[in-house]
Amino acid sequence: MDKSLLHNIFSKPFNHFDWIEVLKDVFGARQLLIQPNSILLPSNNKTKPAYELGNFTTSDDRISGLYKIELNDDVWLERNKVGLRELLRNVYKYDGAVF
How far, in Å, are 10, 14, 84, 92 from residue 32 at the CA level? Predict the structure, then answer.
């Protein structure tokens, strides 16, 4: 995946299928679920549905889980990273990456 294609993907609104290609091409993700698994999160006012997308193995042989969480419109990611990570604490099977 070349630099201009990545720039194009990062410059436009989130598109699940584009990001799946990034995960495959850039991160080498091969263990992706055909149908993402719905994740039950603790009751909160920050998120809409959440899903497990799969996982990949890093260059240092760690397994990193891939998750997709849709945020409510009034939630600022920059101010809520720790709180969102806490919502997933009981979900992580591996180290986690959230999209």
Answer: 21, 18, 22, 16
On the question of pLDDT at 59 being above 70, the answer is yes
Phi-psi map region of 68: left, alpha, beta (phi>0 left; psi -120 to 50 alpha): beta
For residue 36 the two structure tokens come to 């993402």
Q: What is the pLDDT of residue 6?
A: 94
3 state DSSP class of 69? strand
Burial 65-89 (b: 16+ CB within 10 A, else e): bbbbbeeeeebeeeeeeeebeebbe
Q: Two tokens at 11?
A: 């410059």
Q: Tell me the domain boundaries of the chain.
A: 3-98
